[in-house]
Write a structure and sequence with these properties.
Length: about 300
Amino acid sequence: MKLFNIEVERSYWLLTIGVVMAIYLWFFFMAISKFVEIKNERILKTNTEELQSLKEQIVLMQRLKSDAGIYPESIPDFPAGYSQLYTPHFLLLSYNEQLLNNVVQYIEQIYSSVISDTNLYNFNPFERYTIYIYKDSKDYKEKTKRPEWSGGYVSSRKIYTYESDNIKNILSHEVTHLIFNDFLATLAEKIPKWIHEGLAIHQEKKFSNLKTYPFDKMNFLPADEFLNFDLSKASSEKVNIWYLQSGSIISFMLDNYPKEHFYNFILKLKETANIDNALLWGYQSRFNNFSDLEAEWHKGLSIK
């Protein structure tokens, strides 16, 4: 009987241990499953957020692309009652005083970033740039008569835009145009558009969450098509590629070589309006022409 009781007790404990182990394993696998589920959710959320960010950047770039040129003097209606703030290089006007206080926190950072990247430390604007910020898209388009897709534009040392979640990106883009156009003066229109837009896209990327340029690196435009690109006749897909390719090439020139090379490049470009001569002189024979620059840029893409 004692032996029987021992066997029963042993069976009981084995069963108990088995049940406990089963419960433990169940909780363990549930925890692992939950961990994997949470991790997948986070990955999905991160990927979704990154994809949304890329889409927003592409939409923003597309919206700005045709309205970021050099426009003649215009004086859109900006009714009385606005607030204004001064910074060392800007006069900001808006109906929203809180917005102005926010913009003041970073507008000079944008200015400094453009000056630093281009090495234009000797360049001093003769007066402050003016930035008009309308209350919303509707107000902006009614007052400025800009197209529906317009997010902002530059005219005669002034920026016109409106309150939006993307205003920092828009201002980083447009301030770049302001400074570069001001530096080039009457020669601005002679400089290839891809340099204007590439530099503006480069700055916009720096002040956004965009870590890389969201385009297919195997789907870039060949040199001849890129250099002679006609924005007015191209498809939206190719226009986006052209803009992103412009930004990527300028970023390559600025991020991989001393800043004074780019400075010398734009000085020579301002003097001659010849890309090949400016590259040869500015980058000290590292590039003899645009084809050399393009080849090095391709190599840079392949290792990223």
